[in-house]
Amino acid sequence: EGDYLGRLNTDAARAVSMFSSYAVTGLAKFFFYITAGTILLWRIHWKLAVVASVLCAASVFCSILLNPRIRSRESEARKQSDGSVKHLLEVLSGIQVVKVFGLQNILQGRYRKTCEEICRQRVSYGFWIGCGYSLLELFMGMIQVICFLLVLLLVMDGEAELSEIVLAASLSEITAKAAQESNAFIQYIQPG
Q1: pLDDT tens digit string along 121-148?
Q2: In angstroms, how far is CA 13 from the centroid of its own chain?
Q3: Do residues 137 and 82 touch, judged by C-beta distance below 8 A?
Q4: pLDDT score, position 8
Q5: Which phi and psi angles does 140 have, rounded to 5°?
Q6: How many helical (H) and strand (E) elements, i.e. helices and strands, does the chain have?
Q7: Residue 73, CB half-sphere, CA atoms under 13 Å: how many?
Q8: Can you list the residues of the chain whose pLDDT is less than 50?
Q9: Which of 18, 56, 22 is nearest to 36 (CA)?
C-alpha cells in the first residue's frame, strides 16, 4: 500500500510540475506560432503555408521518434557511470584486502572494462543526441530557406509582391519557432 501511495504522490507531483512549468508554456507557444504563422503565410500564398506546415509536422514526427531513443541512451550511460562509482567505492573501502591478496590487477582489469563500457555508452548517446538535434535543426532551418526560395519564385512568376519576401521570411521564422517549441515540449513530456 505504501508503494502505491508513494507512486501516486510522485505522479501527482510530476503532473503539477508539468502544468506549472515550461511544458504548458511551450505547448501554448507551439499552437500560437503554428496557427498564426500558417494563417499569415496562407494569406501570402497557400504553397508557403503547405510547405511550412509539412516541414513543421516532419520536425514534430522526428522529435517523437528520436527522443525516446536519445533518452534511453542517456539513461544507459548514466547507469554505467553509477556502476563505475560503485566499483571504485567498493575497492576504496576494502583497500587493505586488495593489497593483502594482490587483487590490484584483477580489479584494475574489471575497472578498465567498466570504463570502456561507459565510453561506448557515452559515444552512443552522443551519436543519437547529435543526429536527433541536428535533424530537428535541419527541419527548422529548411522551413525558412524553402519558404524564402518559394516566395522568390512566386515573385518572379508574378504571384506575389516583392514586399512579401520579408514578410514571408519573418512568418517562416515564426513557424520554425513553433517546431522548436513543440520539440521542447515533446522532450519534456516523453519518457525515455
Answers
A1: 888 888 888 888 888 888 888 888 888 8
A2: 23
A3: no
A4: 60
A5: -65, -40
A6: 6, 0
A7: 18
A8: 1
A9: 56
Query: Please, how many CA atoms are within 13 Å of residue 65, restricted to the half-sphere of its CB?
Result: 10
Euclidean distance between CA atoms 12 and 100, whole angstroms: 52
CA angle 187, 191, 192 (to 5 degrees): 95
> What is the DSSP secondary-structure string of 107-174?
HHHHHHHHHHHHHHHHHHHHHHHHHHHHHHHHHHHHHHHHHHHHHHHHHHTTSS-TTHHHHHHHHHHH
* Helix (H) or strand (E) segment spanning residue 21: none
Q: Which three cell numbers stand for residue 8?
A: 501516486
Return the sign of the alpha-carbon dihedral for residues 180, 184, 185, 189.
positive
Dig out the grid coordinates for 98 from the structure. Answer: 586488495
- Contact present, 192 and 74 (Cβ < 8 Å): yes
C-alpha cell at 27: 505547448
Give CA–CA dist 56/171, Å, rounded: 13
Note the residue count of the chain. 192
Q: How far is CA 6 from the centre of its chain?
A: 29
Sign for the CA dihedral angle at 161, 167, 169, 173 comes to negative
Cell readout for 160 is 506575389
- Residue that the C-alpha cell 563500457 belongs to: 117
Angle, CA 22 vertex, CA 180 and CA 42 arms, to 5°: 40
Q: Which three cell numbers stand for residue 126?
A: 552522443
